[in-house]
Amino acid sequence: MASEKTKRKHSICMVSDFFYPNMGGVEGHIFQLSQCLLERGHKVVVITHMYNQRNGVRFMTNGLKVYYIPVVPFYNQCILPTILTTLPIIRDILIREQITLVHGHSAFSALAEETLYHAKLLGIKIVYTDHSLFGFADLSSILTNKLLECGMSISDHVICVSNTCRENTFLRANIQDPRKISVIPNAVDSSIFTPDPDAAPKDRIVIVVVSRLVYRKGTDLLVGIIPEICKKYSEVDFLIAGNGPKMVLIEEAKERHKLHDRITLLGSIPNQNVRNCLVKGHIFLNTSLTEAFCIAILEAASCGLQVVSTKVGGIPEILPDSMITLCTPSIPDLIQKVEISIQRIKSGDRIKSLEMHNEIKNMYNWRDVAKRTERVYDMVADSKSENSLIEAILKFRRCGYIGFFVITFVFLANFFLLMIVEYFNPRDKIDLAPDVSNYGRRKSKTHNLD
């Protein structure tokens, strides 16, 4: 492993509203990428907001330092966007940890967006990863896209998790230079998500759903197909893991159609239990209405499940046709494709679980994602972008007249606040933190930092 490590080492700050103990694709991406970057010799810290009573500094596996800053979430696990209020503590962390590169995650994250502006004023390089797809017509998308455009205008490079996501982000953020945006897909830890053919029942066919039960994940479609499949196939059961406002619809369908013994609702489950849930099934069903890259599909395929999914967003890019059955996001087509998969299970006309697992293992690997992300870091570090205040403000011109004046006003206010904070708390008075992550990895035999 030492021979693979690059000579250049970066001090990286991952920033997002979404991190553990919250569970999801972005949270898993940040954690896995951070672990692989630590393995490659880089210094990595994570900044997120507090979760209930979890605030302050915590250490995770291999000495990954996480700052849970004392800012409460406002809506949908995101903080209230103010920009100015987070400057003092974010500045203190970036200086204390001697950060050379800030990596923000998710267009939904207000904390990541704010940290971009703070990092720009501090002369720190910026990389941004977009994990989502957005529309262009509704008010929410228009506002989010305008904020994304302002943030991307000062970012040094943008990473997307699929080609579809790249095209979507390119249009939403009005990126002028196509060389500024790269595609690095997600991955799966195949050492955790392993098949277990003995875990699934032999006399039943279990369809597994692991998803947040919200509109965007197609819960309404799921509610429409469950009664029909259960009516046609008495040997089919549903195992559903996840929580959300749409769970009440599934509970109502369960009561209305008397499917208490056919539908098992697990609710929200810890990340470490997802694999044990998946291996209990034969078919994995995804009904998302929009998806940039669905990690849950990779996890299910790695466990040897036959995948049925809606053909939306970046999903067609994930797996070959032999591993996944795609359909339009409609109830009739979903029922038809699920029936095809049921017949395949009955006839044995499918790829063996271990073969599927080995293919996924060769196709997707977090270490490969880390290597490719590392090349982006090196490219950004070598770029000679201007960090002057005037240069940053001029980049906002592409955000439109109203967007330009609003974001310029906020950016200048942030600059003046930075000057005040610099005066009362000079950077040379801030104690520098030791590189605990590397120390913890080297001394793992005597220092347990889990």
UniProtKB/TrEMBL annotation:
Pfam family, one: Glyco_trans_1_4
Enzyme nomenclature, EC number: 2.4.1.198
NAD as UniProt keyword: no
The keyword Transmembrane appears for this protein: yes
EC main group: transferase
Pathway: Glycolipid biosynthesis; glycosylphosphatidylinositol-anchor biosynthesis
GO molecular function: phosphatidylinositol N-acetylglucosaminyltransferase activity
Swiss-Prot/TrEMBL keywords: Glycosyltransferase, GPI-anchor biosynthesis, Membrane, Transferase, Transmembrane, Transmembrane helix
Annotated protein name in UniProt: phosphatidylinositol N-acetylglucosaminyltransferase
Organism annotation: Brachionus calyciflorus
